[in-house]
Design goal:
Elements lengths: L2 E5 L6 E2 L7 E3 L2 E2 L14 H4 L8 E5 L2 H12 L3 E4 L10 H4 L1 H11 L3 E6 L8 H4 L4 E8 L4 H7 L6 H13 L4 E8 L9 H4 L5 E6 L7 H11 L4 H9 L1 H22 L2 E5 L17
Parallel strand pairs: 1-5, 3-6, 6-7, 7-8, 8-9, 9-10, 10-11
Antiparallel strand pairs: 2-3, 4-5
Helix pairs in contact: 2-4, 6-9, 9-10, 10-11
The structure holds iron/sulfur cluster.
């Protein structure tokens, strides 16, 4: 289970190299959804933690108060919410930090983008509709239940996420369905383009084979798909095979997007680029 710890922080607006905002805001440290492939596990500070990922959430209870003070000093134009945590975890119902933070950003006319996989965000439609929410990247997937049980047993059900995206789109909020991670030979995209025909674009991100716990992830995949285990192990060490495999994924996406007349992007991590994913070192 996840332990909530109330903490106070000295800073909430942290500079970022992610091109979705000048600063990032993370109202919590840790995440109860505990995805095995979460890139935050590879974050320098988090990987040095003695507490296992998923076992704790430090709730930054003074985040709204800090935000008001720092807005006055730093005068940000745009921010990104949720670069190293999930902002809309169940604890939001208890603490209401995001509700306060979004209201403060709206009040000061600061634009924001949000990364999430939580349907709880659909409860914020009135606040998100005030004109300052630029984009919500909403992580989805279509993996089988047994794979989900191995890789993200505590994250919200995919169908609930799809319904939340429908709700946000119905209120004209800019949502990008973000299919992540893509697993070669496993991920099924064929219905995704139709399912989100209202979305202007769909984005995809391949599984990052440079994560520090990739061997654990490959073991989990191999348990559910034993026939694919050797191929996944080969992807870890054979650059040509790795690149050819992702090229096939790209081709499948090109063909589906043409049929659906819907644009898409896919982000594929470079082979052997040991966790240079720039999200990793952004301050929390
Ligand atoms: S929801 Fe996001 S932050 Fe939380 S564990 Fe999953 S990937 Fe990491």
């Amino acid at each position: 289970m996840t332990q909530y710890n109330e903490v106070k922080i000295a800073r909430i607006l942290n500079p970022t190299s992610i091109d979705l905002g000048e600063y990032v805001i993370n109202p919590t440290k840790g995440c109860e959804f505990c995805c095995l492939y979460c890139y935050v596990r590879s974050n320098k500070t988090v990987s040095r933690e003695m507490r296992p990922w998923g076992s704790y959430v430090d709730v930054r209870i003074n985040a709204p108060e800090r935000l008001e003070k720092e807005i006055a000093l730093k005068k940000p134009q745009s921010v990104l919410l949720g670069s190293t945590t999930e902002c809309f975890q169940p604890l939001e119902k208890q603490y209401g930090l995001m509700r306060q933070i979004l209201k403060i950003l709206n009040k000061h006319g600061i634009f924001y983008s949000i990364l999430t996989r939580s349907p709880l965000i659909a409860e914020f439609v009135p606040i998100l509709s005030e004109g300052f929410c630029k984009k919500i990247y909403f992580t989805i997937n279509t993996m089988r239940d047994d794979l989900k049980m191995s890789l993200e047993p505590r994250s919200p059900a995919f169908e609930q996420r799809f319904e939340a995206i429908d709700t946000l789109l119905a209120h004209k909020i800019a949502v990008v369905p973000y299919f992540s991670p893509v697993f070669p030979w496993i991920s099924d995209f064929k219905d995704v383009f139709q399912r989100f025909s209202q979305a202007r674009q769909i984005e995809f991100e391949g599984l990052n084979f440079n994560l520090i716990n990739i061997e654990e992830i490959v073991r989990a995949l191999g348990t559910v798909y034993p026939d694919l285990k050797d191929r996944y192990i080969r992807l870890l060490s054979d650059k040509d095979f790795y690149e050819a495999t992702w090229e096939l994924v790209r081709k499948e996406l090109v063909s589906l997007s043409i049929k659906a007349k819907k644009s898409y992007n896919i982000y594929i991590h470079r082979f052997g680029d040991y966790f240079k994913n720039k999200y990793a070192d952004d301050r929390r």
